């Protein structure tokens, strides 16, 4: 992805604003996902073929994680160490999701598709955040 493409997605050419927007988008999507898991663990569990208890635990984690990422996004100059931790956590989540799907989860077809799609989305956030960090010169 070129700097021009990244700027177009972020709707800014300022690298710090770009980074903050990608962090904010991550926080919103992650928070919404976590809240859905918490609020509808039973129906989602049946649809995805995943234990509702697992969805509740993941939902609670995701809500807390989203709040932390949102706090980071709200900073005028997000500190690089926590930003890099978010990037690493996103990459870890994406890989772990695919490993879980291959090794121990037995979801429905919808659940398998959802797992792959969310892993790709999270990896996309990591890539956009990484490229934005690079654009800031760090």
TrEMBL record:
The chain crosses the membrane at residues 21-41, 53-73, 85-105, 111-133. It comes from the Bacteria. Keywords: Membrane, Transmembrane, Transmembrane helix. This is Integral membrane protein. It comes from Streptomyces capitiformicae. The lineage of its organism: Bacteria, Bacillati, Actinomycetota, Actinomycetes, Kitasatosporales.
